[in-house]
């Protein structure tokens, strides 16, 4: 996501690289490029002009901080202004303590309303609420069936009526009544979409609005449609007074215009973002993280949260213990690889890690998934015993494994060598505090570990062992002296 704007903003900032300070002339050139980058990303014209004006005023007025280079200073200002542009955020859904809360979802055709109804219901259910879905789209024949399937997937009741003898307003009203009977406390209305904003659609939504007075009216917007999404958001907001926007399809190749303009144009906050077709792919919107991603600064916090969701905590703990004790096997390695795969494609993961953006470009067509698949293939061809004790893999075993996984014996060797280096490193690292670990990883990255194709040299990474306890040290020295004496005695006897 946002690859183009990230790259072009990066280029714009180079106008300040190597310059001693920010001047009228370099800020002019830099800002010209920032403006171009935003317009190319389909950010609304007025929003762009305003943004550039604000950044320029600050950059010129800024006292030059000695500790920062001009480039860093401008990036800092742009980062903060992006946050201001997309925020402040409001994740609340106005769920009432007593009675039934109604959430009306609306949006253009295909924007992701029905899917997002399901995602929201799933999220509410997991938070301990009892949601119910209402099929108020009588426009498209298959819409009701689609919502019913989603309801089944997440175990949430769906209220629907026969489209031949009903209308959307009636369905919504009856849906709320049914929720009362069932004891469901949150009702989510899945309304019909239209290709364009038209008066028939707006009047249908207004009638529902008047009839059931939803507590929240949320607009579902397809982020891929750029300024169209923003223009339709304006029209919906004029007709309905929206409480929030949910931007969908941010996992795709969006240019960023919708995310950057919608709040500024409508004044309505983006509450959530859809980042995939599956029903668990809904995230809270965080302007600061989004700004970071746009600037290629990564989004390590989201990655961390995602990892926490996907990873089995007990399993992680167990593996960490194994690492500490030096018992981490190829089996465990394979398990971890599979867990990482669950997070998404390697490229998506790397995009979230600060500084990895440039590396991605350098990688070109290289595909880390291919490597992972090959490595997994090699491990699959080993016996359980070989996975636990890779030292036992001799020449004939190595050839057998290579044949079994369709690789060269040298590839098996390389894996074994890398694995042994890695386990030693992990064992060292697992004894460190968090700060030292971060330092070690940083050294690792600068030592070429993250560089595909480079031979990893763990010796290039100096992992400082934690200082041993003084008493331990004394005991150790004592024992060494004792051993030395014994050895001398033995030598004398000979
Ligand atoms: N990649 C991706 N696809 C999404 C996301 N949200 C929805 N989709 C897909 O977008 C398509 C349309 O989604 P729907 O939920 O049917 O959209 P809708 O707004 O209800 O459409 P209508 O009822 O026809 O107006 C489906 O193929 C969804 O799987 C998302 O966040 N990411
Ligand atoms: Mg739908």
Question: Topology of this structure?
Answer:
Layout: H1 3-13, H2 24-40, H3 45-61, H4 70-86, E1 101-106, H5 113-126, E2 131-136, H6 143-154, E3 158-159, H7 168-182, E4 186-191, H8 199-212, E5 216-222, H9 227-240, E6 244-248, H10 257-266, E7 270-274, E8 282-284, H11 287-294, H12 300-310, H13 313-324, H14 330-342, H15 346-351, H16 356-363, H17 368-380, H18 384-388, H19 395-405, H20 409-430, H21 434-446, H22 470-493
Largest sheet, described in full?
A: 8 strands, mixed
Task: Please bin the fraction of helical residues.
Answer: 55-70%
Q: Quick check: average pLDDT?
A: 82
Ions and ligands: guanosine-5'-triphosphate, magnesium ion
Structural class designation: alpha/beta
- CATH topology value of the largest domain: Rossmann fold
Span of the ends, CA to CA: 75 Å
CATH domain class name of the largest domain: Alpha Beta
CATH architecture classification of the largest domain: 3-Layer(aba) Sandwich
- Number of β-strand runs: 8
Number of contiguous helices: 22
Strand content: 5-15%
The arrangement of helices and strands along the chain is HHHHEHEHEHEHEHEHEEHHHHHHHHHHHH
Within CATH, the superfamily of the largest domain carries the name P-loop containing nucleotide triphosphate hydrolases
The radius of gyration over CA amounts to 29 Å
Main sheet: strand order: 3-2-4-1-5-6-7-8
């Amino acid at each position: 996501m946002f690859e183009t704007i990230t790259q072009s903003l990066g280029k714009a900032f180079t106008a300040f690289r190597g310059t001693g300070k920010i001047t009228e002339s370099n800020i002019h050139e830099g800002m010209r490029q920032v403006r171009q980058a935003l317009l190319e990303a389909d950010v609304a014209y007025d929003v762009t002009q305003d943004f550039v004006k604000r950044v320029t005023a600050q950059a010129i007025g800024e006292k030059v901080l000695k500790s920062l280079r001009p480039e860093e200073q401008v990036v800092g200002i742009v980062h903060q202004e992006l946050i201001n542009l997309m925020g402040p955020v409001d994740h609340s859904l106005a769920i009432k303590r007593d009675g039934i809360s109604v959430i009306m979802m609306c949006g253009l055709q295909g924007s992701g309303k029905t899917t997002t109804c399901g995602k929201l219901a799933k999220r509410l259910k997991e938070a301990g609420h009892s949601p119910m879905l209402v099929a108020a789209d009588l426009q498209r024949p298959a819409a009701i069936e689609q919502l019913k399937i989603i309801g089944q997937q997440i175990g949430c009741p769906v209220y629907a009526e026969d489209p031949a003898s009903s209308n959307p307003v009636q369905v919504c009203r009856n849906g709320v009544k049914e929720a009362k009977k069932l004891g469901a406390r949150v009702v989510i209305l899945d309304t019909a979409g239209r290709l364009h904003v038209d008066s028939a659609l707006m009047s249908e939504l207004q009638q529902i609005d008047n009839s059931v007075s939803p507590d929240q009216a949320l607009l579902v917007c397809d982020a891929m449609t750029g300024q169209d999404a923003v223009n339709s958001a304006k029209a919906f907001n004029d007709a309905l007074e929206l409480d929030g926007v949910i931007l969908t399809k941010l996992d795709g190749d969006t240019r960023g215009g919708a995310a950057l303009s919608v709040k500024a144009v409508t004044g309505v906050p983006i509450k959530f973002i859809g980042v995939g077709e599956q029903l668990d792919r809904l995230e809270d919107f965080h302007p600061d993280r989004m700004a970071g991603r746009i600037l290629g600064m990564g989004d390590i916090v989201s990655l961390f949260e995602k990892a926490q969701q996907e990873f089995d905590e007990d399993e992680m703990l167990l593996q960490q213990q194994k690492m500490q004790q030096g018992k981490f096997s190829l089996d465990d390695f394979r398990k971890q690889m599979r867990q990482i795969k669950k997070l998404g494609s390697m490229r998506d993961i790397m995009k979230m890690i600060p500084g990895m953006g440039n590396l991605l470009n350098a990688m070109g067509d290289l595909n880390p998934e291919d490597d992972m698949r090959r490595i997994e293939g090699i491990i699959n061809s080993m016996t359980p015993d070989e996975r636990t004790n890779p030292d036992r893999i001799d020449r004939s075993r190595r050839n057998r494994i290579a044949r079994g996984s369709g690789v060269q014996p040298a590839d098996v060797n390389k894996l074994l060598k890398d694995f042994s280096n890695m386990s030693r490193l992990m064992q060292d690292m697992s004894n460190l505090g968090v700060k030292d670990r971060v330092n070690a990883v940083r050294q690792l990255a600068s030592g070429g570990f993250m560089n595909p194709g480079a031979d990893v040299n763990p010796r290039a990474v100096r992992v400082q062992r934690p200082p041993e306890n003084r008493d331990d040290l004394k005991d150790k020295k004592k024992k060494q002296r004792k051993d030395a004496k014994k050895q001398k005695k033995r030598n004398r006897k000979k």
